């Protein structure tokens, strides 16, 4: 009980009747009816639904680059990851998240077996930069009003998102809301591309989203103050109150228990209730508060006790201990990332992407078959390249590898084009995931990056130097390959 000193900061109000106040800290969510939703929040599966990035062609990429109009690189996986991390705290827990770009929705929920599903739907950010006139007013030394006009470039980003919380497996809608999150900045010039400015400030939008989610579902810190009474002229009652006020709750509780067993009065039960509430024994606290309220009927001194608030707080706090979900074995299933097939002329590109996908899935909580083990077993069965795997059934490959899940991928484009000031680097492909007892999922991903340096010689030298370093390290298009592997892995559930 000595550790309760930090939780029980006593506000000594001896002059305000025969009681003093005890601070009891809580996390109070903003969501209406959150106590009923606690079971769903205790084991959440979170999805961020957004449209896939539009396909970029060479002409469109070049035009956008030359006009300095590149769009924002929205990272839905980072939003999902941050939201999952922020909501994993007392009162809520996220056990898996994924990005839904192809309408798969809650297709994975039956195998993850959460207690609740939190669906976030957003089209991504809208970003702009425009020249605006600002007017400011000040008073000079002669107290004359002066008006100053100035030209600034106003950069802004806004993102509209819808949020729906469902119970699972009943799929009952528990909460639904929407909000627009925005950030703006005035700059003296427009030297920064709007897309690059957004990349520098995306964190601010994500922080705004996660702050709202935490406040709504996990709660904000709130202090409650409970009165502890001393019966005037009763030495034992006054002694118990003094012990509690000095944070000697064990000793005070012993006095109240002895008095309660002998009949006692409402003050003793109230003291026991506050002590139990501080120890987070909400069942005992509720029982003692109700005894105190019943025995205090008609006593005007008990009028300062906020019985309704107390019972609402206890109901909410008790619901926090609801059993969590996510008992599925999705992440425990042995998973094999098969050799990639490809339609490119690159020798090193597809193997690099495969390695990066393997690393991403491992970071996402998957139980993976080592790549060299996968390749060795497949070679024994006559398969040395990804393009040959179509000749074998997934069930056969699964049995050979002892894996319940297979990840296939076909790289359709792995190229870099350098033409003067124009530099385009592109990785494209499709992937599909086979797993026993789960509908097969397939999707396409692409990463296209275009740069147009203003200086021809400097840009050409930079491009050649970068390409040379990548070839020496056997990691061509390393940055784009990393983005592609991330986009592939975010289509599947990930652990926070």
Descriptive report:
It is a single chain. This protein has 496 residues and is α/β, with parallel strands linked by helices. It folds into three domains: 2-20 and 228-319; 30-218, 2-Layer Sandwich (Double Stranded RNA Binding Domain); 334-489, ABC-type transport auxiliary lipoprotein component (Rossmann fold), CATH 3.40.50.10610. Helix content is 37%, strand content 29%. It has helices at residues 34-41, 58-66, 76-87, 109-112, 194-218, 235-245, 249-261, 266-278, 282-295, 307-319, 349-363, 371-380, 394-401, 456-472, 478-489; strands spanning 10-11, 19-28, 44-49, 94-100, 116-122, 126-139, 145-167, 173-187, 220-229, 334-337, 341-342, 367-368, 405-419, 422-435, 438-451. Strand 7 and strand 8 form a beta hairpin. It is flat.
The CATH topology of the largest domain corresponds to Double Stranded RNA Binding Domain
Low-pLDDT stretches are 1-16, 56-70, 452-474
Q: What's the total count of β strands?
A: 15
Structural class by helix and strand composition: alpha/beta
Largest sheet: 6 strands, mixed
CATH class of the largest domain: Alpha Beta
Mean pLDDT over the full residue set: 82
Strand fraction band?
25-35%
């Amino acid at each position: 009980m000595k550790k309760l000193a930090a939780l029980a900061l006593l506000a000594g109000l001896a002059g305000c009747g025969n009681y003093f106040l005890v601070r009891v800290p809580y996390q109070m969510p903003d969501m209406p009816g959150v106590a009923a939703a606690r079971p769903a929040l205790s084991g959440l599966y979170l999805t961020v639904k957004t449209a896939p990035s539009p396909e970029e062609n060479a002409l469109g990429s070049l035009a956008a680059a030359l006009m300095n109009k590149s769009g924002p690189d929205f990272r839905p996986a980072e939003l999902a990851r941050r939201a999952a991390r922020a909501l994993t705290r007392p009162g809520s827990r996220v056990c898996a998240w994924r990005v839904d770009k192809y309408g798969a929705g809650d297709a994975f929920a039956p195998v993850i077996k959460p207690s609740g599903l939190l669906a976030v739907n957003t089209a991504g950010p809208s970003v702009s930069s425009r020249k605006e006139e600002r007017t400011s007013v000040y008073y000079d030394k002669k107290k004359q009003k002066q008006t100053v006009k100035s030209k600034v470039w106003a950069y802004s980003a806004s993102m509209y998102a819808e949020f729906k919380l469902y119970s699972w497996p009943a799929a009952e809608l528990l909460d639904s809301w929407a909000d627009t999150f925005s950030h703006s900045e005035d700059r003296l010039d427009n030297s920064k591309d709007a897309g690059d400015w957004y990349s520098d400030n995306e964190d601010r939008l994500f922080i705004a989203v996660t702050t709202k989610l935490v406040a709504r579902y996990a709660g904000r810190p709130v202090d409650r103050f409970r009165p502890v009474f001393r019966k005037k002229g009763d030495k034992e009652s006054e002694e118990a109150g003094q012990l509690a006020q000095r944070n000697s709750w064990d000793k005070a509780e012993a006095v109240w228990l002895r008095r309660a067993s002998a009949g006692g009065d409402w003050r003793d039960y109230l003291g026991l209730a506050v002590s139990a509430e501080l120890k987070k024994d909400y069942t005992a606290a509720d029982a003692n508060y109700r005894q105190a309220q019943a025995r205090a009927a008609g006593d005007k001194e008990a009028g300062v006790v906020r019985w309704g608030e107390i019972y609402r707080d206890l109901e909410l706090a008790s619901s926090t201990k609801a059993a969590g979900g996510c008992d599925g074995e999705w992440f425990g299933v042995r998973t094999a990332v098969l050799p990639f097939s490809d339609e490119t002329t690159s020798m090193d590109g597809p193997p690099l992407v495969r390695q990066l996908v393997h690393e991403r899935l491992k970071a996402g909580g998957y139980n993976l078959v080592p790549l060299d083990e996968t390749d060795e077993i497949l070679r024994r069965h006559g398969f040395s390249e990804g393009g040959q795997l179509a000749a074998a059934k997934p069930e056969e490959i699964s049995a050979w590898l002892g894996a319940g899940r297979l990840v296939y991928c076909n790289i359709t484009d792995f190229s870099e084009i350098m033409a003067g000031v124009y530099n385009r680097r592109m990785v494209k492909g499709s992937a599909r995931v086979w797993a026993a007892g789960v509908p097969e999922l397939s999707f396409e991903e692409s990463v296209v990056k275009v740069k147009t340096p203003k200086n021809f010689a400097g840009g050409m030298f930079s491009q050649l130097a970068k390409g040379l370093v990548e070839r020496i390290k056997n990691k061509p298009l390393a940055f784009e390959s990393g983005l592609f592997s991330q986009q592939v892995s975010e289509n599947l559930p990930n652990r926070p």
